[in-house]
């Protein structure tokens, strides 16, 4: 309990005020605050939002005034603490790591950047990791029980974890069940798949019947997948950036140019603005990064020199983790190669393998090297990551929308050209109807064509309509000239209501009469 409380204090101490990196959090928070339960069953994370809304409503019914977004972040903090305690215990008692190695691995997971970051975020990933690890623990415990009752429990837990976040299907139903084959328990394998399928498919079917959507049940069951964007060859950089924060790198013009050229679909205006506060600290962080890479290379060299000490029995025990990384990683390289969030689900097995292959070969008098390595990782991820998120004044979305948050009403409309994360931020913080040109072109055109019939409502225009983000133009097929043609046809004009012309943080109001 003491360790859990210390972890909770650690995460709360670094609770961000700046949510620049958020993609989906405000979408989820808006849904649990404003939507009915039946609207929350997204095929990709089927049970996540309904469960969180149940928690939210339960605490709200006690008379507590809760911010939905912060409430979701607190849930992540709680599950992160439980996950780390469970990880340490599993490493020691089921994967047979030395206690000092298990401790080093647990610390490494805790301070790895994206895990640290998403432990204080309104997202599904940390909760999902807890239940995956709990399922793995039960699979490892199966070695000693091998009873039908244990298989039923595994089936229920694996089905729930898959309904929580659908990509969990890969470790839970492709990798972990290989242990049934290893122990020659074919009957148990059949029960595991059959019962899990009944729970998963049955859950989807019950909701599908209630929704009565236009799509077929099969389409709904297999829905929620991403359209592949990005180069799979960049996946290694994404994995590395999940472990070591690269927020501070945006303070270097050379790095920004490289990212623009290598990831043209990525919106980076937010990160560039955030990195303005780094200053001369960037040179120190560059030195820290170089030192971290040097020590990592030393780890690899040391492991190669001592490769004969690596036992075959240990390899068998870790093979399930290797397959987890290879198969899940292969899936992500096809479906979502350059997004940090999905790769976060591999953070734990990757770092466990790091511990098995690179930490365990260390002699007793060499353990200072891993402590030095972890210190460098912490310095980089604190100074060059979490600490940069403490100041809300460097929150790009806050600066861009703060006038609208204070002035827009439920009668008003806001037209913006993305990115989607900015749209979701405004929808959470304002009562206005926010229209995203990247996804709702017809709605925006219709609004402008009928702007004179709004019964007192105003139409506000975000600056990015006049200066669309590079990445949005790259991936969007919308011709912005369609809007300006309506301008000319209706003799509209724009009036600046916030900021100064030609600046990033400006807001305009549509004027319909000369």
From TrEMBL:
Subcellular location as annotated: Cell membrane
Single annotated GO MF: pentosyltransferase activity
Biological process annotations from GO: lipopolysaccharide biosynthetic process
Membrane topology of the entry: Multi-pass membrane protein
Swiss-Prot/TrEMBL keywords: Cell membrane, Glycosyltransferase, Membrane, Transferase, Transmembrane, Transmembrane helix
Main location per the UniProt record: membrane
Cited InterPro entries: LipidA_mod_glycosyltrf_83
GO cellular component: plasma membrane
Name assigned to this protein: DUF2723 domain-containing protein
Transmembrane segments: 68-88, 100-116, 122-140, 152-183, 189-208, 283-304, 316-335, 341-359, 368-389
């Amino acid at each position: 309990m003491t360790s859990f409380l210390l972890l909770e204090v650690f995460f709360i101490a670094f609770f961000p005020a700046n949510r620049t990196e958020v993609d989906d959090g405000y979408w989820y928070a808006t849904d649990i605050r404003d939507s009915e339960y039946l609207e929350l069953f997204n095929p990709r994370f089927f049970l996540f939002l309904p469960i969180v809304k149940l928690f939210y409503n339960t605490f709200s019914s006690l008379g507590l005034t809760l911010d939905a977004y912060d409430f979701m972040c607190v849930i992540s903090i709680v599950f992160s603490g439980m996950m780390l305690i469970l990880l340490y215990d599993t490493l020691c008692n089921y994967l047979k790591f030395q206690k000092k190695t298990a401790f080093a691995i647990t610390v490494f997971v805790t301070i790895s950047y994206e895990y640290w970051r998403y432990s204080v975020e309104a997202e599904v990933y940390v909760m999902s990791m807890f239940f995956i690890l709990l399922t793995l623990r039960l699979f490892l415990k199966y070695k000693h029980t091998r009873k039908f009752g244990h298989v039923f429990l595994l089936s229920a837990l694996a089905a729930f974890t898959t309904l929580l976040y659908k990509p969990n299907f890969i470790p839970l139903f492709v990798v972990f069940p290989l242990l049934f084959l290893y122990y020659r328990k074919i009957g148990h394998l059949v029960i595991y798949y059959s019962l899990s399928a009944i729970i998963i498919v049955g859950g989807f079917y019950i909701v599908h019947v209630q929704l009565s959507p236009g799509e077929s049940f099969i389409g709904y069951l297999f829905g929620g997948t991403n359209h592949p964007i990005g180069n799979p060859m960049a996946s290694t950089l994404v994995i590395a950036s999940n472990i070591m924060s690269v927020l501070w790198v945006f303070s270097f013009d050379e790095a920004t140019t490289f990212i623009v050229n290598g990831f043209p679909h990525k919106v980076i205006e937010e990160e560039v603005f955030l990195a303005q506060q780094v200053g001369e600290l960037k040179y120190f962080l560059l030195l820290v990064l170089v030192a971290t890479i040097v020590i990592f290379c030393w780890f690899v060299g040391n492991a190669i020199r001592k490769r004969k000490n690596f036992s075959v029995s240990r390899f068998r025990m870790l093979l399930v983790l290797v397959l987890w990384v290879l198969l899940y990683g292969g899936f992500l390289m096809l479906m979502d190669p350059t997004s940090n969030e999905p790769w976060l689900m591999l953070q734990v097995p990757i770092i466990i393998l790091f511990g098995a292959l690179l930490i365990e070969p260390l002699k007793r008098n060499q353990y200072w090297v891993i402590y030095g390595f972890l210190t460098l990782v912490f310095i980089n991820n604190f100074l060059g990551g979490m600490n940069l998120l403490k100041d809300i004044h460097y929150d790009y979305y806050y600066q861009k929308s703060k006038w609208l948050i204070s002035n827009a009403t439920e009668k008003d409309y806001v037209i913006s050209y993305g990115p989607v994360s900015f749209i979701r931020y405004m929808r959470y913080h304002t009562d206005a109807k926010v229209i995203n040109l990247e996804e709702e072109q017809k709605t925006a055109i219709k609004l402008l064509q009928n702007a004179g019939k709004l019964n007192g409502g105003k139409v506000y225009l975000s600056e990015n309509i006049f200066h669309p983000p590079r990445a949005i133009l790259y991936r969007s097929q919308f011709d912005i000239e369609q809007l300006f043609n309506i301008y000319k046809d209706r003799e509209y004009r724009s009036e600046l209501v916030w900021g100064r012309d030609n600046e990033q943080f400006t807001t305009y109001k549509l004027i319909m009469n000369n």
